[in-house]
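Slide 14.
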Amino acid sequence: MQCFFYFYMMKNTFKNIDEYLLLFPEEIRKKLEQLRKAVHMQIPDLEEYIGYQMPAFKYKGKPLVYFAAYKNHIGFYPGAEGIKSFEEDFKEGNYKFSKGAVQFPVAKDLPLDLVQRIVASRIREIDQKKS
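Slide 15: predicted structure.
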């Protein structure tokens, strides 16, 4: 199944997040919608777009976060600073992470409070750079 999604996603261009979500089974789609809502809870009118073939959000014209679904996890991409600031949370939650991404297993509930804290941190980071 993972190969199918990867192949399908690489061969298609999505116009918006809604089109992306339609590719996935209902259980995954629900989790992606939860993630989307958690991001919007910080700033409801964030700009949505597709970047690097993934759902993404912009704040003040700058990339804020990306996410993508895979067979066993949902990747969340807040950038290097977004990861660095929350490494202890990721370790505590037993989430795999790298320099710019964290993996949330699809078999577990999404840590929506953590997502909201990461998004709030990214918003502050962008605000500070614009000052």
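Speaker note: The chain has one domain: 2-130.
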